[in-house]
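Hello, quick one for you while I still have it in my head. A protein chain has come my way and I'm curious about its shape. I'm sending you its amino acid sequence along with the backbone structure tokens. I'd be grateful if you could look everything over and explain what you see. Here's the protein in full, and shout if anything looks odd to you:
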Amino acid sequence: MRNRSACSAVPASAYKGNPLEALWLPDEQVARIWTEYVKNGTVADVTPPLPPFNVRVTSRGSAGNDITRDAEADLESGIGGFFVMRDNRVLARLPTMPPPVVYGRPLFHGLSYHDTPEGTIPEMRYLDASAKPGEKHAYGVLTLNSAGVPSEPSAQAVIP
């Protein structure tokens, strides 16, 4: 039978077990998050991630427009994906296919059992193959964390 105290967070002054076998957490907030993770395998996240930055668009002629961006990690729940916007409308949700292996919530870059990306990390790139040469479009990107909370839109980018 599993020792229930192994999954319970208590203040150090209230701990009755062997202190050499205890897991010490820095504060009450981290203890709450750790307890939730142990119980559910995930952590609630209602905080929006940061928006992507350095969004760039490059014409590839008849092949379409290439949209690239950078993004900060979402430390609370990870990046679940991105929405690519064209003229303030959703053009694509990335990744288009969920990762083949999921532990917990699906993440944009995928995971191994050890929370380390396996294989090649997906590029921060999307080709808008429906864009025609000479058409003017404004592109933006939103980050979606793994809990489904979207960021504010990035600054828009247009072909120079």
About this structure: The longest strand covers residues 79-86. Residues 28-40 form the longest helix (13 residues). Strands lie at 53-59, 65-70, 79-86, 89-94, 125-128, 138-145, 157-158. The chain has a mean pLDDT of 85.
